[in-house]
Amino acid sequence: MLKNQRIEPPFFEIGPKAYMYGDEMVALAKTIDIAAKKYDVRVLLTPQYTDIYRIAQSTENLLVFAQHMDSLPIGRGNGFVLPEAVKAAGAAGVLLNHAEKPLTFSEIKSCIKRAEDTGLYSIVCTDSIAEAKAVAELSPDIIVCEPTELIGTGRTSGAEYAKATKEAIKGVNPDIQILQAAGISNGRDVYDVIRAGADATGTTSGIMKAADKEAMADEMLSALRRAWDEVH
Amino acid sequence: MLKNQRIEPPFFEIGPKAYMYGDEMVALAKTIDIAAKKYDVRVLLTPQYTDIYRIAQSTENLLVFAQHMDSLPIGRGNGFVLPEAVKAAGAAGVLLNHAEKPLTFSEIKSCIKRAEDTGLYSIVCTDSIAEAKAVAELSPDIIVCEPTELIGTGRTSGAEYAKATKEAIKGVNPDIQILQAAGISNGRDVYDVIRAGADATGTTSGIMKAADKEAMADEMLSALRRAWDEVH
Amino acid sequence: MLKNQRIEPPFFEIGPKAYMYGDEMVALAKTIDIAAKKYDVRVLLTPQYTDIYRIAQSTENLLVFAQHMDSLPIGRGNGFVLPEAVKAAGAAGVLLNHAEKPLTFSEIKSCIKRAEDTGLYSIVCTDSIAEAKAVAELSPDIIVCEPTELIGTGRTSGAEYAKATKEAIKGVNPDIQILQAAGISNGRDVYDVIRAGADATGTTSGIMKAADKEAMADEMLSALRRAWDEVH
Amino acid sequence: MLKNQRIEPPFFEIGPKAYMYGDEMVALAKTIDIAAKKYDVRVLLTPQYTDIYRIAQSTENLLVFAQHMDSLPIGRGNGFVLPEAVKAAGAAGVLLNHAEKPLTFSEIKSCIKRAEDTGLYSIVCTDSIAEAKAVAELSPDIIVCEPTELIGTGRTSGAEYAKATKEAIKGVNPDIQILQAAGISNGRDVYDVIRAGADATGTTSGIMKAADKEAMADEMLSALRRAWDEVH
């Protein structure tokens, strides 16, 4: 966990995975950048490694995150993602342990430490209450709570799961921020999750598979702000 | 193998691995870019993924290569390196199967196919005569012949190994270009390898660990040109 | 490749994978053992590691193979499969590089070497003509030719693929034996493959999913013998 | 965690890894079996997969554990270790997440569940207080606490680490049994660990590298009993 530094809620993570890249990604990032300012919300965008620099250079409000990184030190390691290189490219943080790139517990621990030392936020995915609690012991900045079986399905995980994971994580370390994900398809889903008490949420397919990606991003960020204002 | 397109020899691969990144990498790339033009040699540079775009934008003569990529198609796959993203960032090609990132045979095959379809050169590392011959069956653009046990030792693999691998590869597919590596520490080593008949060579530690990296790069590229001219 | 030792054709590989184990596996192995003698054919059976010893002790004619092994030397390596332990349990050989357990080229090479040194036959799976040729360079005892996309489908790969892989492998090393697999569902399929010129074939689902496994094994081995006698 | 069933302390884990196999392993197992009875202690032995059946058949008091297993269900999965096959071979349990075979958190969770369903004890290695606490959330039968993070720091694991991990684990689930390992070289070390409050300890190299393995095993089990009696 970074010292004296945290992402101000509400925030939203957009994960392009391997769906989008290059010019199209940069163009969408610019639109989201404007929407993030308009609604005064923080947006974490996790593009391909190769797009981190371009997006960091082209936007003002976005927090660019790497989709993954390795814990190796400076030196050998052809093909691995060096934390210092991620930072130097302009990233604000790194996503770790996504269901499509699961890590051993020791590697999650090493990567969180490397993130701290490099000045990167760490956001760690977990797919059960037990894993959320376990990862909380490692003090990342943010924990994503997302039951793996719901990823990409359009079904939300529900207020019960959100409540249980929140209690579990805050019980270990109240400073960890929580992102409730899984099944966000539109502004309504965003609204519901935040109304249910979350600080943050996010999506991949909700935007990547939308007919009008820019409109959908705007709808979601607008809903994020509205729900947040009603709760707080 | 890309159609109607090949890298004109002599050429030289510089592999920064996880030794160098960001501004320092870009600065060195610019110096090498000038030297490549001065000596009229082709230089393949394989920086961290996050530096591909910056270097491609900052140089004119370098061929920027990714250190690795995955064969996944556009879509899901958080944390994986998408070929289309590598290409869009300005890369000319991709390095595959390095001893520090070994791939299964099926994955090498898939990646070479993805490189072809995306318009990227593929350069595949092999660590024995048998593997060189095997990979030649897959028709990558370039094969690196480098006995694993010599990597980073400063000992060269010798003319005999170079000759045997060349015969093996050309026997399968004469269009594949060959890069003889392992143990290149200075200009003299470069000179010897090219004099022995190679089209190309390369180094990581020879430059990364040099007291004056820029001077060493210049020395090596100069030797490359000199040896090439004497042979041809 | 083991010296002065080869499996006399025709032979047949039965791969229980993780479908069968323990008493049921031993019982089926005993039935197959009798059928192997009755039809004078060689049968390679690849049970779970934990069943190798029991089956080797309970049968006379079967050649028990491990489903995989690691190339590590005697010493550290908790959880890895030691070649010497496989041999000591009574195995005759080891299967390598199955599509469900793909290996890097270097690891295939190391495992074939370890098999030779330990006195184990090596049988290596390949899923394309290029890979078959490539693996042939490493001189395993047997190469399995099985296009991955057909595994478990009940569709056979056809005489053309069999002919092409045979030529490719024999062109590299005529001493390597070849097993043509993929899509063997019944005795008729076995008959056709051997009639088309193969020395050997095999199946997993053809027997594992049969209503009467013992009857199906008998039918297949009977067809193996009949086809072999008609050809030779 | 298995219901209504636990290993009676004091107990001791001996991990042959890939050091020993076959007849020599069975002979040592028989000697340990006698010593286990003589000192009325429980001994967990984790041989190569291929030796599980032989040792289970040849001993009366030993608890044979697999060095690892996979969470796959019955069916496809060539080369993977099926839980049901491990059980059928006579194993009492399975070791998971050893530093030489680290697993993702999701896989540890799946394997503990599979162990429960198959009737196998699960013993999970952890290398930090955080990981011990994390794994405790998954309710395995036993957690191994072995502080690799202290290696090279000048601090000894000792009573402090044992106390901290015990408190962490028991705070999550008091039914989990704890094995304190790392650096057990002789009977004196065993004595000290148990005197400091542990229920169990274990070794690999302490016995595998001893000049007289059988004598060392006897010395350690004797010390285990003596220390236990003095404490309780």
Q: Assign an overall shape of chain A.
A: globular
Mean pLDDT over all positions of chain A = 94
- Number of helix segments of chain A? 9
Provide the gyration radius of chain A in Å.
16 Å
Per DSSP E runs of 2 or more residues, the count of β-strands of chain A stands at 8
The largest sheet of chain A is: 8 strands, parallel
Largest interface: A-B, 42 and 42 residues
Helix content of chain A: 40-55%
Compact overview of the structure:
The structure is a homotetramer of 232-residue chains. Chain A has 232 residues and is of the alpha/beta class. The first copy, chain A, contains 9 helices and 8 strands.
Task: Describe this protein with a few key phrases.
9 helices; homotetramer; alpha/beta; 232 residues
Structural features, described:
Four copies of one chain form a homotetramer. With 232 residues, chain A is an alpha/beta fold. Helices cover 43% and strands 15% of the residues of chain A. Chain A contains nine helices and eight strands. In chain A, strands 7-6-5-4-3-2-1-8 form an eight-stranded parallel sheet. In chain A, helix 7 packs parallel to helix 9. The model of chain A has no long low-confidence stretch (mean pLDDT 94).
Task: Please write out the topology.
4 copies of one chain form a homotetramer.
Chain A: E1 11-14, H1 22-38, E2 42-45, H2 52-58, E3 63-66, H3 83-88, E4 93-96, H4 105-118, E5 121-126, H5 129-136, E6 142-145, H6 158-172, E7 177-180, H7 187-195, E8 200-203, H8 205-208, H9 213-231
Parallel strand pairs in A: 1-2, 1-8, 2-3, 3-4, 4-5, 5-6, 6-7
Helix pairs in contact in A: 1-9, 5-6, 7-9
